[in-house]
Structure of Bifunctional chorismate mutase/prephenate dehydratase:
Amino acid sequence: MSDEQLKSHRDAIDALDVEILQLLNKRAGHARSIGELKGGGLVYRPEREAQVLARVKQLNNGPLTDESIAKLFREIMSACLSIERPLTIAYLGPEGTFSQSAAIKHFGHAAVTLACASIDEAFRVVEARSADYVVAPVENSTEGAVGRTLDLMVSTPLKVCGEVVLRIHHHLLRREANFEGIRRVYSHAQSLSQCHEWLNKNLPVEVERISVSSNAEAARLASLDTSCAAIAGDAAAERFGMLKLAENIEDEPNNTTRFLALGYHETTASGRDKTSLVMSAQNKPGAVHQLLSPLAEHGVSMTKFESRPSRTGLWEYVFFVDIEGHAAELPVLKTLEALRERAAFVKVLGAYPVAVI
């Protein structure tokens, strides 16, 4: 390609950049006007954002991928939303955890992320209105449900308003650029389990595996001692200046964690939604079958069924259920009415858009 041809393309890009900048500020101006019309009320509408992301993906003709387009528009919406009022998102810290990555993926980089020492604390700061939303892990594709998050959702007044699906890539991190002299490996217990086979094959049996509160904490500890390594993700590696001795060491290549965003408001239907609920069966024969039959009666599909000890009595359980559709839509509404008649306890945890990116 000649210099003249290169200049032609670069001049075109410069002109497009000016146009994009003008359009972005024009969009931001409309966002600010909407905020003024709301008078300081609710600024974040997850159903509206889900509709925008679904629409731009449908309109996309490339060469950018649908996922790239959706991520770009997520950041545009995040920046425009911050003009009205920056959101504060609580998550399980410290900085560099997958929970923080999930919060940023869902709310964008313009949101303020607030690291908390535990999932319990992350819920509490939102319940006390010291933060707007909490993003918490609810299940992993290989390790199953995150019990503490499920337990907290039974009693919290917060409502689920969104979900985030995050591909989990684990790396072996160290300050030194080699494997020699590693005596300990730090990581969260689930991450150690998710990389169990790789560790067995690639590290000596005498290397101690130590479980800590988070992968980011593992990276922090390993950054202080050259005899230690950590299993953590990209964000933790960047945060603590660690080198990647090995990348993507998870045993399951499709390792994915699902997170939920919870806050004080309920969402309206977006067109592609889920409803999450928790319930308990009456103590009689066939009670669980009776709980599930209203879904078939009203043509509602169930995407998750998880049992969990109720903590109220020996051998008593509650059931966490995800169903397709919004709680305000007629089939789901009728299903919930039937469940309330048959179940000993029913709580709708929230109705929210299905993750778009």
